[in-house]
């Protein structure tokens, strides 16, 4: 019967042949070719795998009786599969298998299309709200002019509102290092102007010829749209 050969056609004709070795297409539906196999359930130097359905719905449910759960979550009881289908049809709902390993399996009446839509929307919303915190750096100088200060302040504010931490770096040049209090004043001014969207996580400290401090976003400042 040729059961030792792939179910795609005659061995002499190769994989492109249309005539199987006595197996109907229906019998091999859902079977993924992973090696040389025989009929479903018998394996030769390879394996077969039936495509799994995560959720069985309506006619895909085969086992009877079932433990039926109503649309509102109340338990109806153990009934035959045919009765469950009749109840679901009368209510304009679907039968969805929610606990296939139980005996009898637990089946719930629901609008499955609506359920899948809500689940997909919730997954998209969760992905959209997921945010990985990054550290953004904004650099200043002791004698920074108001125009540059406002420009850098807007950047720092945007970073905080996006939910990121901000590292404020004061860069000293030449003899400016002899007056660190001037740089500290600028950094403290920044923290005061950003008090509505950020809080001090690390106060100013020296790193070589630089002074730095860190701000973290306030929860209410993180953008949610």
Molecular structure report:
The chain is an alpha+beta fold. It folds into 3 domains: 52 residues, no CATH class; 70 residues, Roll (Ubiquitin-like (UB roll)); 87 residues, 2-Layer Sandwich (Translation Initiation Factor IF3), CATH 3.30.110. The chain has 4 helices and 10 strands. The strands form 3 sheets. The protein has a 4-stranded mixed beta sheet. A 4-stranded mixed beta sheet has the order 7-8-10-9, covered by helices on one side. A two-stranded antiparallel ribbon has the order 1-2. A hairpin with a 5-residue loop joins strand 3 and strand 4. The longest helix has 18 residues. The N terminus and C terminus are likely disordered.
Give me a quick take on this structure.
Helices cover 26% and strands 25% of the residues. The chain is built from four helices and ten strands.
CATH H-level homologous superfamily name of the largest domain: Translation initiation factor 3 (IF-3), C-terminal domain
- Described by the principal axes of the CA atoms, the overall outline is rod-shaped
Give average pLDDT, whole number. Answer: 76
Output the structural class: alpha+beta
Strand order of the largest sheet: 4-3-6-5
* SS strand fraction: 25-35%
CATH class of the largest domain: Alpha Beta
Q: What's the architecture of the largest domain, going by CATH?
A: 2-Layer Sandwich
Low-confidence blocks of residues: 1-52, 221-225
């Amino acid at each position: 019967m040729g059961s030792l050969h792939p179910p795609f056609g005659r061995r002499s004709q190769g994989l492109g042949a249309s005539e199987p070795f006595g197996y109907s297409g229906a019998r091999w539906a859902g079977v993924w070719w992973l090696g040389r196999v025989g009929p479903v359930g018998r394996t030769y130097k390879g394996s077969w795998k039936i495509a799994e359905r995560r959720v069985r719905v309506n006619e895909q449910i085969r086992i009877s009786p079932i433990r039926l759960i109503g649309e509102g979550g109340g338990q109806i009881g153990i009934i035959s599969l045919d009765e469950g289908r009749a109840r679901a049809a009368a209510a304009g709902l679907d039968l969805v298998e929610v606990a296939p390993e139980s005996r009898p399996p637990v089946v719930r009446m629901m609008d499955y299309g609506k359920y899948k839509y809500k689940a997909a929307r919730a997954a998209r919303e969760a992905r959209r709200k997921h945010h990985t915190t990054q550290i953004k750096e904004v650099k200043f100088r002791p004698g920074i002019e108001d125009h540059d200060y406002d420009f850098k302040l807007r950047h720092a504010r945007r970073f905080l509102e996006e939910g990121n931490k901000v590292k404020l770096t004061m860069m000293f040049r030449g003899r400016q290092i002899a007056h660190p209090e001037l740089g500290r004043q600028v950094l403290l001014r920044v923290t005061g102007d950003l008090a509505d969207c950020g809080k001090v996580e690390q106060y100013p400290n020296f790193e070589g010829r630089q002074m730095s401090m860190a701000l973290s976003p306030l929860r209410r400042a993180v953008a949610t749209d």
